[in-house]
Write a structure and sequence with these properties.
The N and C termini lie far apart (31 Å). The chain has 2 helices and no strands.
Length: 71
């Protein structure tokens, strides 16, 4: 059964280090958005990072640039 015993309000939120595919290369969409965020923040991010690493950088840079959903 999917989601048995999980918090229904938090079922879509999962730590990137726990992703099954987190060690795969970042997606094209992640690369594009991360490139935009990094340029806005004046940072350089390695091009060979994983999906999980890209997600963590995106979260951090969204906060730094004021983009994305606010908590």
């Amino acid at each position: 059964m999917l989601g048995a015993g999980s918090d229904p309000d938090n079922s879509a939120v999962k730590d990137p280090s726990d992703w099954v595919t987190g060690d795969e290369p970042m997606t094209g969409a992640q690369r594009s958005y991360l490139d935009t965020l990094a340029r806005e923040a004046g940072e350089e991010i390695p091009a060979d990072i994983t999906k999980a690493e890209a997600s963590e950088h995106i979260d951090r840079l969204q906060k730094a640039t004021g983009r994305g959903a606010s908590d």
